[in-house]
Amino acid sequence: MRSLLAAILALFLPARGAHRAAAPPLPPISCPPAPEPAPVITCPHPADVITADGMPLVRPYVVEWERERDERDRRRLQRERRRAAVLATLGQDYVPVPWEAAV
Fold it and tell me: Where is the signal peptide (predicted)?
């Protein structure tokens, strides 16, 4: 007599070896006529969003956050350049403080 574990596994696992049923024969394959060239489809998504299987790999809110962060960095650097120019007219050197970048 088989063990209880073997009996339970036999219920959930497929049959093995010679006891397996033969696969049904595949239907004959007919070659369809050659298709006409597909029309060129333009991408409806922005160039910085890559899609796979119809879903964007990067969520749109992440892309928007990166754009806003880049804009903030650009404005901060512009402010630093202007501050350095104003202080240079007064004869003072301007050294940006590293912790201002985190604000």
Answer: 1-20
What phi and psi values does residue 65 have, to the nearest 5 degrees?
-65, -40
Q: Give the CA-trace dihedral at 68, 71, 75, 81, to 10 degrees.
A: 140
Distance CA 56, CA 22 (A): 43
Farthest CA pair distance, the chain: 99
Radius of gyration of the chain (CA): 33
